[in-house]
Each structure stands twice: as C-alpha cells, then as structure tokens.
Amino acid sequence: MSKISKFFKGGGSAASKGRGGPSAQEALARLRETEEMLSKKQVFLEARIERELAAARQHGTKNRRAALQALKRKKRYEKQLSQIDGTLSTIEFQREALENSHTNTEVLKNMGYAAQAMKKVHENMDLNKIDDLMQDITEQQDVAQEISDAISNRAAFGEEFDEDELMAELEELEQEELNKGMRDVRLPSVPSTSLPSRPVRQNSHVSHELHSCIIRVQHATQRRAEDEDEMKKLAAWAS
C-alpha cells in the first residue's frame, strides 16, 4: 500500500482517533511527509523523461517505432510531473493555511491565559479602597508641599525699613561722591596761541592730571557698580 493510501485510509493514530481528529502538529507532519514523497517522485520522473528523450534520439530514423514509443512514454511522464506540480501547490497552500490557523490558535490561547491572570490579579482589588488611597496620597502630598514652602520662606527681618527710601538715599550718596570726584578734576586751559603744524609733545604735568582724573572717575564708577550689586543682593535676600 502506498503512502498516499495510508494517509487517506489509515492515516490517524489511535490517540488522534480517540480525540476525534488529528492535532495541528500531526496534520502538518503528514503534509510535510507527503511533500517530501512527491518531491522524490518529481526527481524520478524528470530522470525518466531525460532517459526516454535520449532513447528517442538514439533510435531516430533507424527505428521509428521505438523512437515513437519513447516519446509517448516521455509525454506520460511529463503529464504526471505536471499533476504532481499542481498537487504540491495545493498541499503547500493547505500547509500554510494550517500553520496560520495553528499560530492564531496559540495566540488566542495565550491571550486567554493573560486575561485570566489579569482577572485573578484584580479579584482582591476594591475600587473604593483605591480611590480612598489615592485621595490620601494627594492630601499628604499637599501637606508636604505646604511644609516645604513654609521652611523655604525667609524670615521677614528688617521689614520696618522702607526699601525704596534706602535705595533713594544710597543713590544720593553715590551721586554726591561722583560729583565730588568730578569737581576735583582740573582740565588744562586752552592755549591762546595757534597750534603748530606738527604735533608737539604734551606737557607731562597736564598728562599726569588728566590720567589722575580718569582713574578717579573709574574708581567712582566701580564703587557705584559694587554698591548696586550689594543692594541687589540685599533686596533679593529680603524679598
């Protein structure tokens, strides 16, 4: 009995018959066996076709009857080969469909397991208790934020003084210092005679006074900038 006959007449095992049908793995294994058998048959038929074609060439016009018989056998083998090609295509399609069905079944089975696990996890959960717990957490977070804000606020030392008045007084002092520095500066008098065509060397005394004046102005500007920085730091600390 051929393998195909066994597949259709005595295909199922005892265990498969007891369950009412083969499993997906068993059916896939049988389909792969059938594909392997038909592939071997293809190789055999291709070899026979080549042999009959060689025989027809060998006989040729010498023995036309033998040559025609060889060609007839070649045609039969080619027809069988074509039928096997169609059968293999059908089996391949069926195998792919069965593999996809088996995959989908396994996916659905695992998804069912996951759903059961989630249901088991949620069995002991009370939504009312969860809401109460989240409300308690929110309240405690608000309390913690209020405590943090209270600790981080600086104590209001020295609020009995008006900050605007202090800043105005400081600006007056700085302006007085700047005016004083400007009064001490002595600029050189403008000469009555016309300047020479060629530049002459400036008087060393005048250059020294001008240099001293520039230094005093720079020092006054620097002190004012430093005082402004100090006042900004003081205002930032008091705020």
Automatic annotation (TrEMBL):
Name of the protein described by the UniProt record: CHM4C protein
InterPro entries (UniProt xref): Snf7_fam
Subcellular localization(s) per the UniProt record: Cytoplasm, Cytosol; Late endosome membrane
Region (Disordered): 1-25, 186-207
UniProt keyword Ribonucleoprotein present: no
Residue ranges crossing the lipid bilayer per the database entry: none
Bias type Polar residues, positions: 190-205
A single GO cellular-component term on record: cytosol
Keywords recorded for this protein, A-Z: Coiled coil, Cytoplasm, Endosome, Membrane, Protein transport, Transport
Domain of life: Eukaryota
Entries under Pfam families matching the protein: Snf7
Primary gene name: Chmp4c
Organism whose genome encodes this protein: Pitta sordida (Hooded pitta)
Sequence ranges of Gly residues compositional bias: 9-21
Keyword ATP-binding: no
Topology of the protein relative to the lipid bilayer: Peripheral membrane protein
Biological processes per GO annotation: late endosome to vacuole transport via multivesicular body sorting pathway; protein transport; vesicle budding from membrane
Similarity-based family: Belongs to the SNF7 family.
